[in-house]
Amino acid sequence: MTETWREWAAEDTAAWIRVPGAGDDKYARGVLGVITGSHDYPGAAVLGVEAANRAGIGMVRYTGPRALGALVLARRPETVLVTGRVQAWLLGSGMDAGKRNFLLQGELSHALASGQPVVLDAGALDLVGVHTGPTVITPHARELQRLLDAREIPASLEEIREAPGEWAVRAANELGTAVLLKGAVTHIADPTGARYTVTAPGHWLATAGTGDVLGGILGAFAAGHADALALEAGAITALAASAAFVHGQAAAVASLARGGGPVTALDVADAVPPVIGELAAM
Ligand SMILES: NC(=O)C1=CN([C@@H]2O[C@H](COP(=O)(O)OP(=O)(O)OC[C@H]3O[C@@H](n4cnc5c(N)ncnc54)[C@H](OP(=O)(O)O)[C@@H]3O)[C@@H](O)[C@H]2O)[C@@H](O)CC1
Ligand SMILES: Nc1ncnc2c1ncn2[C@@H]1O[C@H](COP(=O)(O)OP(=O)(O)O)[C@@H](O)[C@H]1O
After folding, report:
1. Is residue 119 part of a domain?
2. Less crowded by CB within 10 Å, the N or C end of the chain?
3. 102: pLDDT strictly greater than 70
4. Interface pTM (ipTM) of the complex?
């Protein structure tokens, strides 16, 4: 069956931008629980927390080894390292599923059993299926290939790159979750039939750590829409498309500020506020 994909637009994203009101405090705006990074990839933890803050969040609770917590705090002293109640989770960026210890496994299991919205990235992708709340996975093509292979769904990297939409849909249906498949055109699909594309306005995003930034933006959006997600789990798909849209626009803004030249992952995170500001004013 030929699927109809709709390009997710600024107007669609604007509907999901939450501007705080007089009655909001940090908890009402949403708290994101973040379990990301590792000794091998500490930067992913910093990038995700930075991006979540830039996307607008009440608070971030970061869980990880002490050394990583110190790095996150050095960049974002707003971060809280105490465990507690959260409205959504971001799990797995900068982690290696093969190097998970008991403690980390327990923390991830706790998050997945909470019934709260979850963004599953990189080294937590293999945990899809044990989630209990609205969930979106955020693989790139190679990660999706590995994930499908582990579920005995044979697909080559070439096949996924040639028909990313078809494989995003297949994954959504087989895994029973929303899928955001990253690329120059990002495909977002879910088991209920939602099909969105987000076409990046340029290609400087193809650089290390921008996926970790996307995870942070999406995590913040999920935490900020806990009520909508409780009513309608499918909202996670619209939030994923909105995060991808903001991410692409932020890369464009960051590049423009540098004469149209290259950007780093942190530059992209830094450029998220003006993008959100413009969307909020629509
Ligand atoms: N700052 C941070 O903390 C960052 C942290 N990050 C975190 O890193 C984790 C892993 O994410 P990833 O996307 O790199 O993993 P993955 O799909 O396994 O790719 C490995 C494949 O790449 C290939 N390959 C390697 N070198 C190559 C080369 N020079 N030229 C060509 N190919 C090369 C290699 O191929 P091979 O060498 O085996 O032929 C293999 O197939 C993940 O947790 C992510 O969040 C990232 O976000 C980055 C910033
Ligand atoms: N050629 C490209 N043009 C535009 N965007 C791209 C391109 N390649 C990758 N991207 C985007 O860059 C980000 C890269 O994420 P990811 O592959 O997870 O990298 P990392 O693991 O280094 O963070 C994704 O949001 C993806 O959609």
Report:
1. yes
2. N
3. yes
4. 0.94
- Domain with 35 in it: 6-276
Q: Which residue has the tokens 């498949």?
A: 181
Please count the structural domains in the chain. Answer: 1
| Per-residue tokens: 16 | 């999901």
Is 44 labeled as ligand-binding?
Answer: yes
**Within a domain: 235:** yes
- pTM for the whole thing? 0.97
Going by pLDDT thresholds of 50, 70 and 90, the confidence category of residue 132 is confident
| Percent share of the chain, pLDDT over 70 | 99
Which pLDDT tens digit goes with each residue over 167-215?
999 999 999 999 999 999 999 999 999 999 999 999 999 999 999 999 9
Residues 42-64: b if buried by 16+ CB within 10 A, e if exposed: bbbbbbbbbbbbbbbbbbbbbbb
Task: Please report which confidence band the pLDDT of residue 131 belongs to, taking 50, 70 and 90 as the band edges.
Answer: confident
Distance (Å) from CA 148 to ligand 1 centroid: 18
- Residue 215: closest CA among 189, 192, 182: 182
Q: Is residue 282 part of a domain?
A: no
**Amino acid at site 9:** A
CB of residue 143 inside a 6 A radius of ligand 1: yes
How many A from CA of 182 to the centre of ligand 2? 6
Q: Which of 145, 196, 198, 210 is the best mutation target for the ligand 2 pocket, counting ligand atoms within 8 Å of the beta carbon and taking the most?
A: 210
Nearest partner of 217 among 121, 133, 96, judged by Cα: 121
Map tokens 């340029």 to a residue: 202
What is the CATH classification number for the domain harbouring 121? Answer: 3.40.1190.20
Strand, helix or coil at 60? Answer: strand
Which token pair is 108?
A: 């991830």
Tokens 């990839």 label which residue? 41
Chain mean position to CA 63? 17
- Give φ, ψ of 187 to 5 degrees: -105, 130
